[in-house]
Write a structure and sequence with these properties.
Length: about 120
């Protein structure tokens, strides 16, 4: 599958960071498959517990992970979460942002796994 045919991921930044090394690319993709669901589950838990400080910190950490995914909607939702947590403002909106991420991440993971399969 041509990378430009992906609907949920854009791996240009990951390609750049892997510097054309296919093994490094697979390592990075595998890291995404592991980290994305874990971090998202952590964010959901922190939201449910209304732990805004920790959630803001988790969201901040997610920025670097999401840069490799290249999905503007998820990146924007995460940025919004961090911003709201810092401002301690309108936590209900955080729930909406997490919902957007929870809807998109499964599709993102499918495409990442497809890319790993294509590389094998």
């Amino acid at each position: 599958m041509n990378p430009s045919t992906y609907k949920y991921i854009n791996l240009e930044y990951l390609e750049l960071m892997a510097d054309g090394d296919p093994e490094m690319k697979v390592v990075m993709l595998d890291m995404l498959v592991t980290e994305l669901p874990e971090e998202l589950a952590k964010m959901r838990k922190e939201f449910d517990e209304q732990d805004w400080e920790i959630l803001g910190s988790t969201s901040h950490k997610m920025k670097s992970t999401l840069s490799f995914v290249g999905n503007p909607k998820v990146t924007e939702a995460n940025k919004e979460i961090e911003s709201i947590c810092k401002a301690k403002d309108d936590p209900q909106q955080i729930g909406d942002m997490i919902k957007i991420m929870e809807e998109l991440v499964p599709n993102i993971l499918l495409e990442i796994k497809q890319e790993v399969t294509n590389m094998a």
